[in-house]
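Appendix B.2, paired examples.
Example (i):
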Amino acid sequence: MNPQKVLALTGGVGGAKLGLGLAHCLPPEALTFVVHTGDDFEHLGLPISPDLDTLLYTLAGEANATQGWGREGESWTTLETLRALGGAAWFQLGDRDLALHLRRRELLDRGARLTEATAALAEAFKVPQTLLPMSDSPVRTQLSTDQGMLAFQEYFVRERCAPTVSAITYGGAEAASLSPELAAAFADPDLSLIVLCPSNPFLSVAPLLAIPGLRAALAARRAPAVAICPLVGGAAVKGPTAKLMDELSMAKTPAAIARYYDGFIDGLILDQQDVAHAEAVR
């Protein structure tokens, strides 16, 4: 008998942490991750996929436990040398992390799709779960701010989320398509549950929902879909969710999150301290 399968839509550190919890509870063949790639960009000629890598390192037991991103036991000789040479050192790439990006570059240059490159990297890290990028096509998050239009990594890393955000767009999403592997995962007759991890709704989940095929697959779901609320007591579990909700004139409540995901989920899981909000999200 085939195990019932779970499809987890995830991005960021918060999503990776829930992903690790799911990996502890489910057999590897029953768990597939759909990973946000709107943060991806090219830096120093290398293709960087921060959320794919954070989940990969987390599942492999390689993530830096203190900061939640990057690799444990990292060294920074290349970055320090680059800074001394006047290079772009604002995005921190450790020596061990660089090796992964070099390998991804090699795979993509040989003609591999991002989905195929991700599978090869997961195999190398001995991660048994399936990791699927949300698309093999590029989707890039752009933020309109009081400092002008910023690409995601400029906003998040270089500017440390300080600029005030007035709008967010997801360039390339309308033209992006689902990979055959991802389409098959949504159509799998053994799929029993879809989980939206407690990732940032605007920066990690919205880029997935902006892809027409993914949006349609969720809307036509046969399995129930639940989201883990990224707010606890009105504060973000991780990252700038609450700050963005203020700037986008949204109430920092579970009900606002439920409305944002309306049509894509059948339930919202709240923390115990937010039990008073349960009726408002029904």
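Example (ii):
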Amino acid sequence: MNVKQAVLQLLIGLMVVACGESEAPDATADKTWSLPTAVVKVEKLPVTYMSTGTVVSDQRIEVSSRSTGYIREILVHEGEEVRRGQILIKLDGADVEGAINQAEAAHKTAELALKDANIDLQRFKDLYVRGNVSESQMRKIRLFRDSSQETLSKAKTALDTALSRRQYIDISSQIQGVVVARHHREGDLATPGKSILTIESSQGLLFDTFVAESQISKIKRGDAVQVRLDALDLSLAAVVARVVPVGDPLTRRYKVKVALPAQEGLLSGMFGRVHFVLESKDSPVVPLTAIIERGGLQGVFVLDQAQRTHFRWLQLGATTSGFVEVRSGLQGGERIVSAVNPAIGEGDIIQHSAQSVDHE
């Protein structure tokens, strides 16, 4: 093959390649999508603060005896619910009954002694009138009668005291609640002030939490809060009951007590989280349908004036009613694709029907 033939073949090959390239479709051509868009609006959103805590009873009592005696029977166990007035503990009443019998005998003796003293006094009065008894003897008999009256009064008081101890043989509950601890067993000696049972009220439960000193000034009694309980998988609308104004010097945190509403299954000791509303702020919001994930990050497609898409990463906040707060990356007034298609690419054209972003 000579040089002319080689050059000719090369030119023919180049023409074929050029024709083939002109006939191939343009792979970089922009795509056009018909999707809804929206103008980002700014809403006033609450600024919340979350802290963890525990459900506690607002009333906890230590059940003890007012008199000394051996425990004959404990009628309840840990975890049992008790009602107000229910008998919890029975003490051995032998000592109490013995004291009552002694007091009754002393009272009866004092009554007889006073009766005899009154009879003697009446006799001496008659003798005194007739002059058979001196004034000194008359005075002594009156003093003896008065002493007998005082002795009877003391015996009556002692009897009343002994009888009052009878009501403490059976110890009843002063509240409706749950037995959380038994400190004694049957046969133990019960003494005044020494706890036998611990009962927590099942009514008026509180949620105890601790708040950082930087936030405590923003929390006031009566503030509405939301308490999330993991064990029950529900949120409860609650109210701040008390703010303890003395903080822990080590943790710099302050105790806050939240009053919980009555709820079936709610028990002391349950773990939860409380959300306080501290203030409000203006923030952009976008519908959840506009959020798409690219490269492991979440964002939206923003439209320019030519209706071309540009993906923008966002820092998102709380979600509510189908919308999500945008903490950074987007401003109010910008237009976005509100119902995104995962196949959308950078620079695609959107033919849209405008709709507003409205945070309900």
